[in-house]
Amino acid sequence: MTLRTNVAAYHKALVLKNNRFVKLLAEGKYWVAPGETVISYDMAQPFVAPLDINILLQEPALAEALLVIDVKQNELVLLYENGLFKSVLAAGRYAFWKGIITYTTISIDLGKYEITEAVDRAILLRQDLVPYVRVYTVESYEQGLLYEDGKFRKKLEPGIYYFWRTPAALTVYKSDTRQLQMEMNGQEILTKDKANIRLNCSLQYKVSDILKAVENKEYDKQLYVLLQLALREQVSAYTLDELLDKRDAISPLVLSAVKERAEALGVTVADCGIRDIILPGDVKEIMNQVLVAEKKAQANSIMRREETASTRSLLNTARLMEENEMLFKLKEMEYVEKIADKISSISVNGGGDLVGQLKQIFIPQKKG
């Protein structure tokens, strides 16, 4: 008994019998013989083969109706429908109906990491492409180096970089190109006279050759060691007293020594300085005692100079009064006035020499 089947508009149908392809049906109404199976397909959807697709494609009618896309191993295909990105096709064979949608593809060779294909960045950020894309960001203050399987490939300037996720190992080394500061605190060093002191030192530097810096493992730690060695070399050539006196003169010497050696690390040293010299407790106490003694000696010297000047002034005054009787009288009156200020009342006899009477009161008379 035959059955009637209807193939809708924009659909195709496969007629199978005993798992064998019989024919392809287009839009319309058909009679189907007993034992035949009809499978309908929406032509706007991918073709899903009910049998091995390689067998079905042996039929010329079906092969003509389908667009077949073969994706090789280590390859990727971006599928576009009517110019819009649709999906990612991994290795395998895919089939789509012709006639409704215009399909275009971009083939990606996953044997190379560079994205040379005309792929929009927005598509690279889509979730279905995330497993196939590597993204690296080099900030505006950084430089980067790209290595493939441990081999240097190229420098990366600031920006965002997209690479295909190939079997090869990609590594991006980044370095801050701004001026950086290195702090060295509490570095113990022996002076020429065997005084054990501690130094606080700072160094300003920047990475000038990132390739050299990366080739030197932990270049910043190596730079720290260079600073240590330069400090010890310079400081050990001075006694403690010389070091305290020439502290500012040592920093340029340390800078010169570090700067020359740092170039091999790909680093340019801008400045270097000794911030603090920390003395041991016993030395600090001795230095404080010396300082106090020096200040006392300075104070005593000043006092002696003042006393000498005062004595010299008195001597000069005495000589003037000896030579000038009027000046002597004025000086007597000055002292009498100063003494009288401290007395509430004084009784004197009128008619006599007032100054002479006051003199007799305040100045003891010598016994004959």
From TrEMBL:
One of its GO terms (cellular component) is plasma membrane. Residues 133-291 form the Band domain. SUPFAM superfamilies: Band 7/SPFH domain (SSF117892). It is a single-pass membrane protein. CDD domains: SPFH_eoslipins_u2. Belongs to the band 7/mec-2 family. This is Slipin family protein. It comes from Chitinophaga oryziterrae.
